[in-house]
Each structure stands twice: as structure tokens, then as C-alpha cells.
Specification:
With about 675 residues, this protein is an alpha+beta fold. About 35% of the residues lie in helices and about 20% in strands. Helix 2 packs antiparallel against helix 22 and helix 16 crosses helix 17. The strands form 6 sheets. Strands 12, 13, 14, 16, 17, 19 and 20 form a 7-stranded antiparallel sheet that branches. Strands 2-11-10-3-9 form a 5-stranded mixed sheet. A 4-stranded antiparallel sheet has the order 5-4-7-8. It binds 2-(butylsulfanyl)adenosine.
Length: about 675
């Protein structure tokens, strides 16, 4: 057993290491260690924290892994209403916006009777507003804005955001008459959850790999990530949190917005670095122009600046209208909007057969970038916006990321515009398209559709899949349209002669490609599963499946319940895997791959371990194994370990001097076993 000092050193080291690897995984998408190595570190830290409970910290990586899905969000009534801001739209001319700002200043001065007013200016972040309740300095509840009065309880999800302080250090400014406890009993911190632009690009790339539609902008991505019933999904999304206000301070004085922000920063909240405090009217106007200039270079999306009266006393004096305060305005940037002609709407077919309508635009410069295509998402979107071919449309770049057709200028219509309807047949293969129940998207369900096939082949051969050098998108398209490949297995039946029949194919390239294909016949099982392109199965899920089942046959035979025993696999993903292996066309391709000599390297399956899918809770001292080793054993053998007894617990393992968990187990009728029985179970005796 480690002594306290050694334990503290090890705990600090593990926390640092885990934070670093979290960042590599979630933010950089470039992990340096395998998932199981990560899990081992995490298990060790969890064990040490439970052996030395006073060293546990709410900001430890052990606390950030997400929890199982909720049925639905519960409502949270905000202590202080979450107001919104009056927007002033500068539109095209800057002078207009300046007039609005000058007007705002005049109003503030005349109502308050002050001669001049000092302001705080902040970027207006384009994310999702949240309210964070701290009770006696501890984070207890996180909520969305909802209707301003009542929001949704997203506490579990907010807990997964790395920059969230769980505890506020005990150094609040004391009230004029110092209180025994300087914390306001309840304090709401307000802020914005955002997703950085680069993170969104990566997330969309991953969604594409998994056959899922991309998020159109960072705000949707942040909202979609935070409003997840399963916080384990939120934990995997790179979210950041900037805080900008303290509501409900219960008498603790913060004389100015400047001091509010300084306190937030001191307590460990992330305050936007571009904030400027205590400035005059002209400086506000200059700030607006300056931020507008540097906006494109910022890593996150903003859509304006917020000007706030700095003094909280004057803020109170000014008060609020029904929905927005009189002491602040949001000066929106002239949107990066341009008009152009919608020349056509074409329909693209993705790997999973989803038909996506795409606007073909007369090329136009929008905020320094030429835009000629924009996704229209689906038919409902087109109908909602009432877009017709030939229309003059307003195009905007939603962030720097994705161009979007926002609306149509109906006045420009001359009657020649043509309404658009989605085809009833796949534009690539002519097969009938269907609308899958519960989805807006239309799908071509012909498994040998050329468009899907192209996407499918290039996915199959891509770097994280079978990694066939020389088999990029173009080569895949060429092979498909020449009729040389009609499923991934055909790649392995290509010959040099067949390749040389393709246009512009040199002898050397053909030889190299054949060699690369030959060299791809023994992939790891995880790569092979990923290559199959099963909907919702990205690289990470493929790795988990490979570890659990060890071979393709085992995976193919698994039922939905069995699949869901794997951490992170829910009903939807399980159904997708199950269905894949029941589709005759897929089975034929798998058989053909086998016949071609493609055989993934099998692994030792965890599935046959007696601990597979079982959920353990330990209590008391385990004399022989020790908590740490026991937990590792369980996890290496495909089980999970929890800290409290629930309906899902399979066994409570009771060591010496067990705690109240035994009573919990009795109440729920959960089997309680001693250490000897546990060891026998592990050894499968
Ligand atoms: S102050 C009454 N500061 O804008 C004060 N809001 O239109 C309202 N927002 O719901 C909040 N950046 O989601 C404030 N620096 C900032 C902000 C900001 C973005 C959002 C927030 C709010 C919306 C109001």
C-alpha cells in the first residue's frame, strides 16, 4: 500500500497525464495512447481517489467521463430570469450602427442622470447560453436558457466540459459587514457554451465517417452536444465555456461588470480574453470595428459585440424591459451576406445512400471566400425557405465553416423560377428512393448504387480503414464507373491488366496499386470493422467491438442486448450493427472478401469472460486482490465497476469491514459475494 505522500504524487501525475491525453483525444483528435492504456490510468486514479477520499477533487478527470442516458431533461427554474439582449443590426453601413450605439449611450445617460458612463465591451459569442448554479461554492446544477424562466437540466453534460470549475475557492469579496460564510448560498453564473471552428470541422469529418449529417454551424453543434440525453456523447464533444455574468449574488457586492469578470477569472472561469472594461463611448465604437476586423481569425464564432454599462448600480437604475435589459445592447456585425442566383439544385448521394440537395450558385464572394455550392440539407429545408431554381438568394457563411442559403428575395421573381422537388429515383442509379421512418432524409436503398459504391470503396480503402495507398476518391470513382468494382471485395480481384485498361493508368502505378491491395489483406479486426462502413460505427466504436468480440463471426452473431453491454453502445448503434449482419447483400460481400483471402487478425474476445458485461461494486477491504487490481481485472475482462449499488449492479463484492453498500444490495436483491467467490468468478472456476 502506498503511503499518503506517494499517493499524492502519483495522483497529481495521473491527473496531469489524463488531462493531457484527454486533450489529445478530444481536442486534437490525435491520441498518443490506446483507449485501454487510457482506461488503465483512469482506473488507477479512481482507485487511488477512493483509497484516499480526502484527495479526491471535483475537477479530477475521473469526474468527467459522462453518465448513462437520461430518459428526458428535467426542468430547472432559474433563480434570476435569463434575459436576452436587444440586437442592433448595423446592416451595410457602419454609420448606422454607430448611431445606434450613440443613441444607447444617450438613453443610458438620460435615464440615470449620469454625465458620462463607463462601459464593458465583450464579444457576442455564438453558442448556447447556460446558467450554472453554485451552492455554497459548489457547482450543483447546469441549465439551458429555455424560455428564460425555466430551462432544461443539463448538469451531467456541463460536468463534462473541461473548463468548468466545480468548486469556487473561498475568497469572494466580503460584504461591507463580513458574513460568517462569504459565499452567497446560491449563485448563478451565466455563460456561453461554444464549439471552436476547428473542432467543428473535425467533428463533422468524424460524423461523415459514421454516415451522419454534419452540423451546419458551431452554435448548432454546441446546442446539439449539450442537449444530449447521454452525457457520454457530450463528453466526446470538444466544448468550451466562457462566462460573463453572475446572477443571484444574494447581497455580495460586485460594484462593476469589470469586477464581476475579474472575480470570475480568479475563480477559474474562462473569461473571454478580448473583453475590455471601463471604457467610454468612442472606445466602444472603436472596439466594435476592431473586433469586426479580427473576427475571421478568432478560433470561435462571434456575431457581434455586447456593450454593457459597467456600474451595477447604474444597471439597476436602468432596469429591464420585458425581455432585455436597458443597460446592454448587442451590436451585431454586418452579416457576411451576399446575393446571388440559385442556378440549379443537384442531388448528391452519400455512402449510406442519403440524398442531399445541393445549391449550385452563381459564384459569389462572401467574406473573402468564393462560394458556388451550398448544402440545402433536405427537402423540408427547401420548402421552408421556398427556394426555386432561378431565384435570387441570400447566401451567408455560417461561421467560417459552411456556406448557407439563408433566404430568397421574392421581389426579384419574374415567374420563370422553377420549384424543386426531390427525385423519386436515385439520380445516380435510378432505383426508387425511400423516406426512412423517423428521418427527414430520403435514401437510395439500392446497395449497388454507383454513387454509394464510390463513397463506400474510398471509405473502405481510406487511411484509418484498410489503408490502401493509391486508392483515393478519384481512383475509386474511376474503378466504379469502369465497372471494374461493384463492391469492396472486387478490389482484391483486380489485376494489373484490368487496371491498365483505365485511362491514364501508368504501368508503375498499376503495379504499386496491386501491391498495396495485396498488402491490405490482413488488417486488424478494428480497421476491418471500421472499413465495412456500418452506420454509426466510427473508428472508436470499431475498436471497442473488435476488443469485445475478437472475430467477425462473433460480432456478426451478437444480438442487440449483447452489443449494448459494451460501454458507449446504445440501442441505435446496436440496431445498426445487428441489421448490417442480417442484410444478405452484406453477407455476400463478406463471403467474397473471405474467398479473396482477406482475413482480419482476430483478437482474444472479452465476450467469453465470465465478467463480460457485468457491473461490479466493491465495498470494504479486499485482502488479496486490492481494489485497484480488482477493478483492473473486471475492466480488462469486459466488465464495469461502479461506486454505488443500482438496479444495474450484477454483484457487490464485499471485503473486510464492508460499508452500507451491503444494505443497498439487500434492498435491491443484488447478489453479494466475498473476495474468494470473486476470485473464483474471475478464474471462471
Ligand atoms: S449578457 C441580459 N454577454 O447573447 C444579459 N450575452 O441575446 C444577457 N451572448 O442569451 C447576457 N455573448 O446567449 C451576454 N458576452 C456576452 C454574450 C452573450 C453571447 C448571448 C447569450 C444571450 C444572448 C442574448
Amino acid at each position: 500500500m502506498m503511503d499518503r505522500h506517494e499517493a499524492q504524487i502519483r495522483i497529481d501525475l495521473l491527473r496531469e497525464a489524463l488531462k493531457y491525453h484527454n486533450q489529445r483525444y478530444y481536442q486534437l483528435d490525435d491520441p498518443e495512447i490506446t483507449d485501454s492504456e487510457y482506461d488503465l490510468f483512469l482506473a488507477e486514479l479512481t482507485q487511488l481517489e477512493s483509497a484516499f477520499p480526502d484527495m479526491a477533487r471535483p475537477d479530477s478527470p475521473t469526474q468527467r467521463v459522462g453518465s448513462p442516458p437520461l430518459e428526458k431533461f428535467s426542468p430547472v427554474v432559474h433563480l434570476t430570469t435569463m434575459l436576452s439582449l436587444k440586437d442592433v443590426f448595423p446592416m451595410k453601413t457602419d454609420s448606422f450602427s454607430e448611431a445606434e450605439i450613440i443613441d444607447f449611450d444617450r438613453r443610458c445617460r438620460s435615464i440615470s442622470g449620469e454625465e458620462s458612463i463607463s462601459y464593458t465591451v465583450e464579444p457576442k459569442l455564438d453558442g448556447l447560453a447556460v446558467s450554472l448554479l453554485y451552492e455554497n461554492g459548489r457547482f450543483t446544477t447546469g441549465a439551458t436558457r429555455g424560455d428564460g424562466t425555466t430551462g432544461e437540466n443539463v448538469t451531467q453534460n456541463i460536468l463534462t466540459i473541461p473548463s468548468l470549475p466545480r468548486v469556487i475557492p473561498d475568497d469572494l469579496p466580503t460584504a461591507p459587514e463580513p458574513k460568517a460564510n462569504p459565499f452567497p448560498e446560491k449563485m448563478e453564473i451565466r455563460g456561453e457554451v461554444c464549439m471552436e471552428k476547428a473542432a467543428l470541422v473535425k467533428l463533422n469529418r468524424r460524423r461523415d465517417q459514421e454516415g451522419l449529417p454534419p452540423f451546419a454551424n458551431p452554435r448548432n453543434a454546441a446546442a446539439g452536444s449539450l442537449r444530449q440525453l447521454d452525457s457520454r456523447i457530450t463528453a466526446r464533444r470538444p466544448l468550451t465555456l466562457f462566462c460573463y455574468a453572475i446572477a443571484a449574488t444574494e447581497g455580495i457586492p460586485f460594484p462593476t461588470q469589470k469586477e464581476t469578470l475579474e472575480s470570475l477569472a480568479r475563480w477559474g472561469f474562462q473569461v473571454n480574453p478580448l473583453v475590455r472594461t471601463g471604457i467610454g463611448l468612442q472606445a466602444c465604437i472603436d472596439y466594435y470595428h476592431h473586433i469586426n476586423q479580427i473576427r475571421a481569425e478568432l478560433p470561435y464564432e462571434i456575431d457581434g459585440v455586447v456593450i454593457k454599462v459597467d456600474s451595477l448600480r447604474i444597471q439597476q437604475q436602468l432596469g429591464a424591459l420585458a425581455r432585455s435589459p436597458r443597460w446592454a445592447i448587442a451590436c451585431k456585425f454586418a452579416p457576411v451576406h451576399e446575393r446571388t442566383t440559385l442556378e440549379d439544385i443537384i442531388v448528391q448521394v452519400g455512402r449510406t445512400g442519403v440524398l442531399t440537395p445541393v445549391a449550385v450558385l452563381k459564384p459569389v464572394h462572401v467574406g473573402g471566400v468564393t462560394v458556388s455550392r451550398a448544402t440545402l440539407h433536405n427537402e423540408d429545408e427547401i420548402r421552408k425557405k421556398d427556394l426555386r431554381i432561378g431565384d435570387t438568394v441570400i447566401v451567408q457563411r455560417a461561421g467560417d465553416v459552411i456556406p448557407e442559403v439563408v433566404s430568397v428575395d421574392r421581389e426579384k421573381r419574374d415567374g420563370s423560377e422553377k420549384p424543386f422537388t426531390m427525385p423519386e429515383q436515385c439520380p445516380e442509379c435510378g432505383a426508387r428512393v425511400v423516406r426512412i421512418e423517423g428521418e427527414v432524409a430520403l435514401r437510395c436503398i439500392n446497395l449497388s448504387c454507383q454513387a454509394q459504391l464510390r463513397e463506400h470503396i474510398s471509405h473502405f480503402a481510406s487511411r484509418p480503414a484498410l489503408d490502401i495507398d493509391g486508392m483515393g476518391d478519384k481512383m475509386a470513382a474511376q474503378l466504379v464507373s469502369a465497372g471494374l468494382v461493384s463492391d469492396p471485395a472486387d478490389l482484391f480481384f483486380l489485376t494489373k491488366e484490368k487496371l491498365l485498361s483505365l485511362e491514364r493508368m501508368a504501368d508503375k502505378s498499376a503495379t504499386n496499386l496491386i501491391e498495396a491491395i495485396e498488402g491490405a489483406k490482413k488488417p486488424t479486426l478494428a480497421r476491418f470493422i471500421f472499413a465495412l462502413g456500418i452506420r454509426h460505427v466510427g473508428e472508436r466504436t470499431a475498436k471497442l467491438l473488435a476488443g469485445a468480440f475478437g472475430s467477425l463471426d462473433e460480432l456478426g452473431a451478437a444480438g442487440s442486448e449483447e452489443l449494448q453491454k459494451i460501454r458507449d453502445i446504445g440501442p441505435e448503434v446496436a440496431a445498426s450493427i445487428f441489421d448490417f449482419f442480417r442484410e444478405p447483400a452484406n453477407l455476400r460481400v463478406l463471403e467474397k472478401l473471405r474467398a479473396a483471402g482477406v482475413s482480419p487478425i482476430n483478437e482474444e474476445p472479452l465476450k467469453y469472460s465470465p465478467l463480460w458485461g457485468k457491473h461490479f461494486v466493491f465495498t470494504g477491504t479486499l485482502e488479496n486482490t486490492g481494489r485497484h487490481e480488482a477493478k483492473q481485472l473486471v475492466e480488462t475482462l469486459g466488465g464495469t465497476v461502479g461506486s454505488s449499488v443500482t438496479k444495474k449492479t450484477s454483484y457487490v463484492v464485499a471485503g473486510d469491514s464492508p460499508g452500507s453498500k451491503i444494505d443497498d444490495a439487500r434492498k435491491l436483491g443484488t447478489p453479494v459475494i466475498d473476495e474468494t467467490a470473486f476470485i473464483a468468478l474471475v478464474k471462471n472456476e
